[in-house]
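Example (one chain per record):
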Amino acid sequence: MSANKNRIRDILTSLNEGLIEREEVMNLTFLSSISGESIFLLGPPGVAKSLIARRLKFAFKDANSFEYLMHRFSTPDEVFGPISVSKLKNEDKLERIVEYYLPGANVAFLDEIWKAGPSIQNTLLTILNEKIFRNGEQQFSVDLFAIIAASNELPEENQGLEALWDRFLLRYHLLGINEKENFNKMILDTKNVYDDNISLELKITKKEYEKWQNQRDKILIPSEILDLITHIRIKIEEFNQDLQKNDEPIYISDRRWKKIIKVLRTSAFLNNRKKVDLMDCFLIPHMIWNNPEQIDLVVRFVKECIHHHGYTIGIEINTINAAIESLELEVESETKYIKNKKVRIPKLYSNISYKTVGGSSLPFLSKDDFDSMKKNETSTNFRMSRNENMSNPRAFTAKKLSNISISINEFVYDLETDEEEITVKLTRKPHDALIEIWDKRIKHTKSEIDLEIKRINDYANIELKHLKENIFVNPIKADIVLNKIEELKVKLNQLKIQCDEIWNKYHSIEADE
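Predicted structure:
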């Protein structure tokens, strides 16, 4: 027997009917119950905390519920049941009548949980952690599908509430309705949201619930999920080591991490999958914050880790990149060489007076003038001497012929030069046999890249097509996972372009240059 995803979706749709801006918390409360874990709702009065607990009961067939508002004078009798007078009188046994109280319930809602006294807290710890209740000389397993606790405040420090707080695995900060249209819809709605609107065939039986617990534990945890959790833990450790003055550290016990895995498995199971995926991991922030100020922070941590350390599907992009870099260095080594060469370098120029033109001196030509001239481009305005004002330049037709020669009024002049030895980089055409080897290597590398891109596409189409169908996670978050896949494809295509650039580099060399 396995959970049917469509059935689960129909149950959640019915549970959320009439609830405004409460779909996420309702779904998480349902998920926590199927996981066998508890959830804590933080929020002011009047934001539907008790309503969520009452509606959750409708998901289970013939379920008993228990509600209690804690106060500082609460007694164990009010929560766990009164002492049986007949048992005490006739059998001298101190036992409680648990029917209609928390130990006999399937769904329990405990409001203002932190006001419970130590005697209630200690018994709750055992029930929350082990689902066991000790009644006099006997102890028995309770059939609690869900425990929902609520308060408008967090537990006070140094009040011995840390252990109880740690037992509430899922945590949700519930606020008032935000959107104006949703608020108007809520206040105008006349439907009774306390009515049971789930059909009998949809309801989950106790037998189903128990079988699901065993089937859930068989869900696989892929290595990338374990790696992701490791990176999240590293981020949290780094945050804790670099705390600002007023920051509170993020503490997650080993027990909580183990239970987090159970919730991820439950999500995968209810989504009809055989293994946990990255979409399930978007649930992790609901299980690792200690105060509301940390919510945005842990959401960012998980989102970044999913993006940067998500699916790589075994592609060794660094290996491909190293092979291309090795080829590029080899091509550079075989086609480039350095040589010392003697060249003529023009001296600094002043009045050039090789000859006269029409009885006049040649124009004054400075080094900056000459260097600014483009080869074979005609210039006409020159000074006649170093000190002459350019506001009245003389017209000479000059053309730069080379780095050491110029024509003025069609007469060619060589400039005075010095001989210097410089080091130049030259290019030589590789041997045809070497070109053939390089061509084969590039062809092979590009084929490998195309194969990897095909693997990515096939993987995305088969393994990731369900990402936007997770019934507990907003489908828009799938884009974070899919963007990682697209980034990988972009990097591989960039490596193909790099292969083409290397090919063009050595094929474009005609002869030694």
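Caption: Residues 217-310 form a domain with the Helicase, Ruva Protein; domain 3 fold (CATH 1.10.8).
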